[in-house]
Amino acid sequence: MLCAAGAITTGKHGRRLDELAVELQKAGGTALVVEADITDRAQAEAAVE
């Protein structure tokens, strides 16, 4: 069960992130998808900006 909330989802696999965002939106929340490999410092920093 998901509750309504706002979330930023980050990961390497955009499709899975999009699916999670859809589930959050169906529950009445909002989601921002940021595709990034957080083990790569440059990508992690870019995701925060």
Please provide a written account of the structure.
This protein is an alpha+beta fold. It has one domain (6-48). It contains two helices and two strands, in the order E-H-E-H.
Backbone CA Rg: 12 Å
Whole-number tally of structural domains: 1
Number of strands: 2
Number of distinct helices: 2
**What fraction of the residues are assigned to beta strands by DSSP?**
15-25%
Strand order, biggest sheet? 1-2
Terminal-residue CA separation? 30 Å
Describe the sheet with the most strands: 2 strands, parallel
SS class: alpha+beta
- The succession of helices and strands, N to C, reads EHEH
Helix fraction, binned, reads 40-55%
- Overall, the morphology is elongated
Unreliably modeled segments: none
Q: Oligomeric form of this entry?
A: single chain
User: What's the rounded overall pLDDT mean?
Assistant: 81
Write the SSE topology.
Blueprint: E1 6-11, H1 14-26, E2 30-35, H2 41-48
Parallel strand pairs: 1-2
Summed up, what is this model?
The protein is of the alpha+beta class. The chain has 2 helices and 2 strands, in the order βαβα.
